[in-house]
Design brief:
Layout: E1 2-11, E2 14-24, E3 29-33, H1 40-48, E4 55-60, E5 63-64, H2 69-74, E6 76-79, H3 91-101, H4 106-119, H5 135-147, E7 153-157, H6 165-178, E8 183-187, H7 191-197, E9 200-205, E10 208-214, H8 215-218, H9 223-232
Parallel strand pairs: 3-8, 3-9, 6-7, 7-8
Antiparallel strand pairs: 1-2, 1-4, 4-5, 9-10
Amino acid sequence: MIEAVGLSKFYGDFAAARDIAFSVPRGQVCAFLGPNGAGKSTTMKMLTGFLSPSEGRARIGGFDVGVDRLRAAEVLGYLPENGPLYQEMTPQSFLKYVGQTRLMKGEVLQSRLEYVAESCGLSDVWGKAIGKLSRGYRQRVGMAQALLHDPEVLILDEPTSGLDPNQVHGVRELILQLGETKTVLLSTHILQEVYAVCSRVVLISEGRLVFDGSRDELGDEGQAMEEKFRSLTATAI
């Protein structure tokens, strides 16, 4: 459902990502890890079509993102890091607008709006201006737009950023539920989150893939996983 085939991105002589190759099947929650500056966001932007690769290709749901981006977008929900939101709109009006741009309407749109309002915990701020919401609530609005059209594939960049512990727990439970039927690629800096929701880990360092395996291969929860992460990314620290 997610395929990176030799993805590279060059800026002059600098390689933000070099020959990244992995795939994620349906029904798997895969962590995408790496230290700051490793190339995670660059790779995710290439996978979603927001950035054109210098080399290689990306496929979402079998669609080549570079050739058939619109078809790929139909099956993809993307939460970017610090995703743009219209500050003067409310969650209700913003998400309705997002749905309409995806040609959703009538009862289908209304039922999905009700679903994301409940599942993302937005009911209490449904009619408030996004610009007046806390960072945590704005993050939940971003999560809601990724889920709105019931996509088969989710690519989430730091989905629990800015959330309090109760909200983090709720998002993790939601990701686990979604992972039963959907494909999820989850970027996070929180190793505890990896252990809580992911079965597989892809780790990059300095733009290169350095680990691709099960969560347990990376290490048990806590210190063992942290030590393995440091050993694999030591040159990038």
